[in-house]
Amino acid sequence: MLRSFAYATYTHLLRRQLAGATLPRHVAMVMDGNRRWARQMGFGDPRVGHRYGAEHLDEVLGWCAETGIHHVTVFVASVDNVRKRDSAEVGNLMRMIEDVVAERLRHPASPWQVHLAGRLDVLPDSTRHALKRAEEETRNPAATSHLTIAIGYDGREEIVDAVRSLLAEAESLPEAISSLTADRIAEHLYTSGSPDPDLVIRTSGERRMSGFLLWQAAYSELYFCDVYWPGFRKVDFLRALRSYAARHRRFGA
């Protein structure tokens, strides 16, 4: 009881500190540490952490909506995660994405329009179909809340694919070279049309980007949190926003 009261009081204090503060328009999150959390919690099979992590996304999206953040990008799995991890673990992760993430986002009550970023061809057919269905069924020109799911994603491959697409679009090599600008490359990224993230949060204590949004996050503020994704609490989220609000963004100047 006392612990719950202290938590609620601290959460309220953090919300008060953020009143009137400059908050990010777009938050990107690396949802890391599902298996380590499961081991920490004593589960015999660490793969169950993927289910808890997938279910936790719902709650975190609710926090984003509460604080007026309407652009969110989540890093679900890299190309290497899909290609190099144990097939049983990858299969379990893909089922969680199909059964939890894709299904819940398709619910009529969900305010989020789904966008996909990555090499969908590396995913199992069922996972690719479930995600594409969620993307199609949530498409709405009037939508104000946008969730991008980065899956089968690698930031370096994304840049290579963008350059290839731009070159293929040009009718001649001189034209291709002359049109090779940063803005033109950005138009061909997987995330084209979405604003660059203002804040990137990574859970689990790891302090690296792991190829996530390498182009888009050039001027993003980075926040590394020492808790695993399923244990990422509202106070951790609000602390990240408080840290962001206290920084002076210079965009390379």
Automatic annotation (TrEMBL):
It comes from the Bacteria. The keyword Transferase applies. It holds the Pfam family Prenyltransf. Its EC number is 2.5.1.-. The keyword Magnesium applies. Keywords: Magnesium, Metal-binding, Transferase. Binds 2 magnesium ions per subunit. InterPro entries: UPP_synth-like (IPR001441), UPP_synth-like_CS (IPR018520), UPP_synth-like_sf (IPR036424). Homodimer. Belongs to the UPP synthase family. Z-FPP synthase subfamily. HAMAP family: ISPT (MF_01139). This is Isoprenyl transferase. It comes from Paractinoplanes atraurantiacus.
